[in-house]
Amino acid sequence: MIVKMSNTKILAHEGDDVKLMCEAIGFPKPTIVWRYNWRCLPDPARMTSRDVSTTCKNVVSELTIKNFQAGDDALYTCEALGGTDRHLSQPVEVRFTK
């Protein structure tokens, strides 16, 4: 299975909407779960994901962090699950900036 992230570092201002993209390729088609510092997303009301593209072997998922806040800065990863395989992407560092 191959898992790719769109960025490695993002600087965000308070109130920004931040978008991260992840692509996972494998068979069976992977399911993507987003992680915040290798744990579950802390605020599912503001941190939402959706599949933006799928084929029989790949999926592209987008994570949107609405109204970015200082406590949202972290390492974000996507975890691809397919059959008995699971793989983590390289982390994307999302940092708060003024």
- The N- to C-terminal Cα distance equals 38 Å
Helix percent band: under 10%
Note the run of SSEs as H and E.
EEEEEEEEE
Provide mean pLDDT, rounded.
Answer: 93
Biggest sheet, open or closed, and with what strands and sense?
5 strands, mixed
Strand content: over 45%
The low-confidence parts are: none
Number of helices: 0
Number of strands: 9
Radius of gyration: 13 Å
- How would you sum up the global shape? elongated
| Alpha-beta classification | mainly beta
Layout of helices and strands:
Layout: E1 2-5, E2 9-12, E3 18-25, E4 31-36, E5 47-54, E6 58-65, E7 74-82, E8 85-88, E9 92-96
Parallel strand pairs: 2-9
Antiparallel strand pairs: 1-3, 3-6, 4-7, 5-6, 7-8, 7-9
Q: What does this protein structure show overall?
A:
The mean pLDDT is 93. This protein is mainly β and 98 residues long. A hairpin with a 3-residue loop joins strand 5 and strand 6. It is built from no helices and nine strands. Helix content is 0%, strand content 57%.
